[in-house]
Amino acid sequence: MVPRPLAEGVQPEKGETIRTRLIAAVALIALIALLVVAVAKSAPRPPVVEKLAKTITTTWKCQDRIGEKRTKAGKVFAKHSISYRKWQLKTWQARAEECRQWDWQTWLPSQWKTVIQCETQSIRRQYNSSYEGAYGFATSSWDAFRPASYPSNANLATPWQQYMVASRIHARYGFSGWGCKPY
Predict the structure, then answer these.
(1) Which of 111, 115, 129, 175 has the smallest set of CB atoms within 10 Å of its CB?
(2) Are residues 79 and 91 both part of a single domain?
(3) What domain range includes position 58?
(4) Angle at 80 between CA 79 and CA 83, to 5 degrees
(5) What are phi and psi of 131, to 5 degrees?
(6) Residue 173: in which H helix or E strand, if any?
(7) Helix, strand, or coil here: 109?
(8) 121 and 158 share one domain
(9) pLDDT tens per residue, range 38-79
(10) pLDDT tens for each residue of 129-141
């Protein structure tokens, strides 16, 4: 509303001045709110949010491949502090790595796939009195080559842990440690 010009020396009515100022203030606040919303929508997401979204997607794809139920993400794109976002990212990266360790079909070299298929038909929880795990480890070999933090039996270890122990044995003895060969 545009104020009416007053004749010289005439004072505006008290209510008219307050109303005019109030309308101007409300219009200014509305304009500022529109600008803030426009800037917020056009502003790029912080890099940590983009990394978080990619990590969640990677984790879900991995969980789908191994037949595991997807971890709920919650309100990922709600407003949070950067430090909380970094914590979220670290948590999801750990989940993605854990899933990757179980998704051995995607990372296990073909020569090892051949060995475990021959040894145990790729049954990673294989267990009998002499051999255990996907690689058919002799109990004595598993005990000799596993790090102390790994489970005491190969059939209780993750596919990644079994692969790491098999790699240690292979580094020392080659494929002579297995009855089945990759060739």
Answers:
(1) 129
(2) yes
(3) 47-104
(4) 155
(5) -130, 150
(6) helix 159-173
(7) coil
(8) yes
(9) 766 665 666 888 888 888 888 889 888 888 898 888 776 677
(10) 889 999 999 999 9
Residues 122 and 165 in one domain: yes
pLDDT in tens, 108-126: 899 999 999 999 988 888 8
Q: Is 6 a member of any domain?
A: no
**CA pseudo-torsion sign 60, 63, 69, 72:** negative
DSSP-derived secondary structure for 127-162: B-SSEETTTTEEHHHHHHHS-TTS-SSGGGS-HHHH
Q: Are residues 170 and 119 in the same domain?
A: yes
Q: Does residue 165 contact residue 154 with C-beta atoms inside 8 Å?
A: yes
The answer to whether residue 5 sits within a structural domain is: no
CATH number at residue 165: 1.10.530.10
> Which residues are CB-neighbours of 160 under 8 A, at least 6 positions away?
100, 101, 102, 104
| pLDDT score of 143 | 95
Q: Which of 68, 45, 71, 67 is CA-nearest to residue 56? A: 71
Say if residue 128 is in the same domain as residue 162.
Answer: yes
The Cα–Cα gap between 134 and 151 comes to 14
Phi-psi region of 137 (alpha: psi -120 to 50; beta: other; left: phi over 0): beta
Q: Are both 162 and 146 inside the same structural domain?
A: yes
How many domains does the chain divide into?
A: 3
